[in-house]
């Protein structure tokens, strides 16, 4: 079994996330891609982040049409910062013989060496790195303080998609439409729940 783990804040999930997951699935022949919303993303200011139940609900809606995609609440059930090493080791325990992959954008790849127990993570997974605009991956590699062999990294072949949750949030808070860039159902849910309405 080949499992892709795709962690993120997903505040909100967008079509960029779905396309990255699709290309990862194709290029690494993944049987499953597991989207894992971080309860407390270690490198983000978490007081500004939408509650994890709402993000989990949005991701569940986003993956629904895709039979190989699923969402896991594993990081929502843990106390404290959502460290990827804990998630990877939990999956290793659940699936001792699976090939594990970690999907991440080039921005995250750049600071991967600073993650908690990055070496431990790198022992367990192959990294699937998606391009992001303005992010030079070669430079990211040379900046890294840890050595990853070429066989530990697969660069996803796709155009860099200039879509981010933060830009979508800015528009949502301003009351502007973003539905063309949201997965099916997510826009209606956001409007119904008033998730990004300014208080
Ligand atoms: N458009 C995109 N192209 C490639 N990778 C992406 C894209 N958007 C997000 N990712 C990757 O998906 C993972 C989860 O990202 P996250 O949920 O933080 O979305 P984001 O759009 O980067 O959010 P924000 O703008 O709030 O930082 C990260 O590894 C990130 O690099
Ligand atoms: O484990 C870490 O030290 C670590 C540090 C920074 C980010 N991450 C993970 O990287 C993923 C993307 O993070 P973010 O902040 O872009 O949503 C998410 O799953 C985070 O938990 C993990």
Q: What is the CATH superfamily?
A: HUPs
Q: End-to-end span in angstroms?
A: 46 Å
Q: How would you describe the shape?
A: globular
**What is the total number of structural domains?**
1
Largest sheet descriptor: 6 strands, parallel
Strand content: 15-25%
* CATH C-level name: Alpha Beta
Strand order of the largest sheet: 3-2-1-4-5-6
Hetero groups bound?
adenosine-5'-triphosphate, nicotinate mononucleotide
Structural class: alpha/beta
Mean pLDDT: 93
Output the radius of gyration.
16 Å
Q: Report the order of strands and helices.
A: EHEHEHEHHEHEHH
Q: Examine the secondary-structure arrangement and name the CATH architecture.
A: 3-Layer(aba) Sandwich
Helix content: 25-40%
GO molecular function, one term: nicotinate-nucleotide adenylyltransferase activity
EC number: 2.7.7.18
Pfam families: CTP_transf_like
Organism: Sulfoacidibacillus ferrooxidans
């Amino acid at each position: 079994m080949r499992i892709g783990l795709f962690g993120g804040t997903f505040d909100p999930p967008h079509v960029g996330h779905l396309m990255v997951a699709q290309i990862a699935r194709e290029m690494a022949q993944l049987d499953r891609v597991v989207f894992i919303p971080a309860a407390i993303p270690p490198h983000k200011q978490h007081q500004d982040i939408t509650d994890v139940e709402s993000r989990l609900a949005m991701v569940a809606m986003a993956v629904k049409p895709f039979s190989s995609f699923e969402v896991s609440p594993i990081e929502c059930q843990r106390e404290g910062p959502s460290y990827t090493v804990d998630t990877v080791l939990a999956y290793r325990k659940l699936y001792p013989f699976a090939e594990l992959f970690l999907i991440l954008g080039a921005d995250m790849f750049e600071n991967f060496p600073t993650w908690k127990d990055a070496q431990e993570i790198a022992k367990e997974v192959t990294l699937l790195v998606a391009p992001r605009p303005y992010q030079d991956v070669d430079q990211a590699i040379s900046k890294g303080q840890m050595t990853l062999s070429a066989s530990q990294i697969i660069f996803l072949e796709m155009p860099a998609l200039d879509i981010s949750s933060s830009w979508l949030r800015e528009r949502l808070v301003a009351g502007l439409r973003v539905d063309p860039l949201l997965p099916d159902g997510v826009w209606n849910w956001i409007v119904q729940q008033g998730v990004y309405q300014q208080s």
